[in-house]
Write a structure and sequence with these properties.
heterodimer, A: alpha/beta, six-stranded mixed β-sheet, four-stranded antiparallel β-sheet, 10 helices, 37% helix, B: mainly alpha
Chain lengths: 254, 280
């Protein structure tokens, strides 16, 4: 029995009157890959930002390795945040820095690795995500969308994090490139033995990456289970979502 | 008779209803504006406190600080030089045309000296750098905000205040006074050029009276103003960029706000500092 890497209980977050997270409960075991699915604007991104400490939740607990990080002071919590890596939706590469400096950012700034060995390490990680050493000296704006995603992935895994977040990793990519990125995600997560939390509304990607799937709707987890269970479930929310139908319990606010 | 009475009561109540609606709307607008104003003020104060705290505490990013020194200081030199030289020249001309009827041409040197060092060089430096650098800061940080690069910094365990805000504010506070000193020299030189070549003054006399008139307070005023203006420019650029929302339009708004707010604040603080230093 593996222990829980991430354990979230009763997480609430509201912006003004708008309740975004309304009591989210999630458990992710060590080395497990959980995919949270849900429509746009259901609070998926807010969930990840709360775990990473970019947003402060209103109430509820977030335990990383059994320690509630919402109760820690900033400096203590930083240690938990240092274990995390993230691939952003738009890659969010620093456009004032070269590709290799992006990848090596965490190594240089936090682990205080000398620049020469950081460059070598960056090139190694870039190769791991299928990019040659020739892109290392380019700037992010000179890369295509798929390549930027790869560099973003390389930056996320370069610090060897124990937890990796993926925010809509396949959005904006063609189906083939999506599959390539999915494979890279699986490889790199397995390679590091990391725990992964992905948010997406791309079902093909979710099926591929996930050990477990959870569905977020109106700030609550309405369903959880494996991919096989998802195909058999009678849960009306999940059925409507995976079939992509506009009719069902999920109402789309236009 | 009865019919008419009923008609008038309806009329009054309708009028009242319209008035009520008007007042309600007015009060709601007023309340909303006030609440927004105070929440903005609170947000800004918090931002100032955090920025100052992170300017004082390690780690420091010296490489980024160096880049800001170049951007704010070195690359602003041409603009500052051009504005202050013409300011000095025009002051010399105006002083001459105003004072010549009193036969006090010697006043030109001291008027140029005082107006350039105490007011024109600091204010022109401030305004030009606000336009050049304040806008660039807001645009850069704003774009980083909307493309999630600031969040990415946080996830890489780097504090965005230390990495983005602190170098800009430190550089602003240190560099602007230097720019003002450069502006002082070039502005006075502008006045000298006009006085010698256009108004036919004696160069030696002009230089003599400039040096005799020069007091340390002239330079110190410029230094104080430069530091304050530098802080205002960097702060407004970073704050507006940091808080920008909603894509390209939001970044555009942030840029405009940064320049407008810092320009207005520079003029207001210029008055306040002059008031504090020169009224007894």
């Amino acid at each position: 029995m593996k222990k829980n890497k991430i354990e979230i209980k009763g997480l609430h977050k509201a912006f003004g009157d708008k309740v975004v997270l309304d009591g989210v409960d999630i458990e992710i075991k060590e080395g497990e890959s959980l995919v949270v699915i849900g429509g746009s604007g259901t609070g998926k991104s807010v969930l990840i930002k709360c775990i990473q400490g970019i947003l402060t939740p209103d109430s509820g607990s977030i335990k990383i390795d059994g320690i509630d990080i919402t109760q820690l002071d900033r400096e203590e919590a930083e240690k938990s945040y240092a274990k995390m890596g993230m691939l952003f939706q738009g890659a969010a590469l620093f456009d004032s820095l070269k590709v290799w400096e992006n990848v090596a950012f965490g190594l240089i700034e936090n682990q205080k690795m000398p620049r020469k060995s950081a460059l070598r390490e960056a090139i190694r990680v870039l190769r791991q995500v299928g990019l040659g050493a020739d892109v290392a000296d380019l700037y992010p704006s000179e890369l295509s969308g798929g390549m930027q995603k790869r560099v973003g992935l390389a930056r996320a895994i370069a610090t060897k994090p124990e937890i990796i977040f993926f925010d809509e990793p396949t959005t904006g990519l063609d189906p083939i490139m999506s599959d390539v990125i999915n494979n890279l995600i699986i490889e790199s997560v397995k390679g590091l033995g990391a725990t992964a939390l992905t948010i997406t509304h791309d079902m093909a990607s979710a099926r591929k990456i996930a050990d477990k799937i959870a569905m977020l709707y109106k700030g609550k987890i309405v369903w959880q289970g494996t991919v096989k269970e998802m195909d058999k479930t009678n849960n009306p929310y999940v059925k409507q979502f995976i079939n992509g139908s506009s009719e069902g319990p999920i109402s789309v606010e236009v | 008779m009865n019919y008419i009475n009923i008609q008038t009561t309806i009329n009054i109540s309708r009028k009242e209803r319209i008035m009520m609606r008007f007042y309600k709307k007015f009060l709601r607008r007023l309340g909303k504006t006030l609440v927004t104003f105070f929440s903005r003020l609170g947000e800004l104060s918090l931002f100032v406190a955090r920025s100052v705290y992170h300017c004082m505490t390690p780690p420091f990013y010296f490489k980024l600080l160096g880049r800001q020194f170049l951007d704010i200081g070195f690359y602003s030199l041409p603009v500052v030089a051009l504005t202050t030289i013409f300011a000095g020249m025009v002051i010399a001309l105006q002083t001459y045309s105003g004072f010549s009827s009193y036969g006090a041409e010697s006043a030109v040197a001291s008027v140029v000296l005082i107006s350039v060092t105490r007011e024109l060089a600091p204010v022109f430096c401030g305004l030009m750098v606000a336009g050049r650098i304040g806008a660039a800061m807001a645009a850069e940080i704003g774009t980083m905000r909307v493309t999630e690069q600031i969040d990415a910094l946080t996830t890489l365990s780097t504090n965005p205040f230390k990495y983005l805000v602190a170098p800009r504010i430190i550089a602003g506070v240190l560099v602007l006074p230097m720019l003002v000193v450069v502006g002082d020299i070039i502005g006075i030189f502008g006045g000298y050029v006009v006085s010698i070549y256009q108004l036919d003054f004696n160069p030696a006399n002009y230089i003599n009276s400039t040096i005799n008139e020069l007091q340390s307070i002239d330079i110190i005023t410029g230094l104080i103003k430069g530091a304050v203006f530098g802080f205002i420019i960097s702060l407004m650029g970073c704050y507006n960029g940091y808080k920008s929302r909603g894509g390209a339009q939001g970044v555009g708004e942030a840029t405009t706000n940064a320049v407008v707010a810092s320009s207005i604040l520079i003029l207001i603080f210029n008055y306040i500092i002059t008031g504090m230093l020169f009224t007894k």
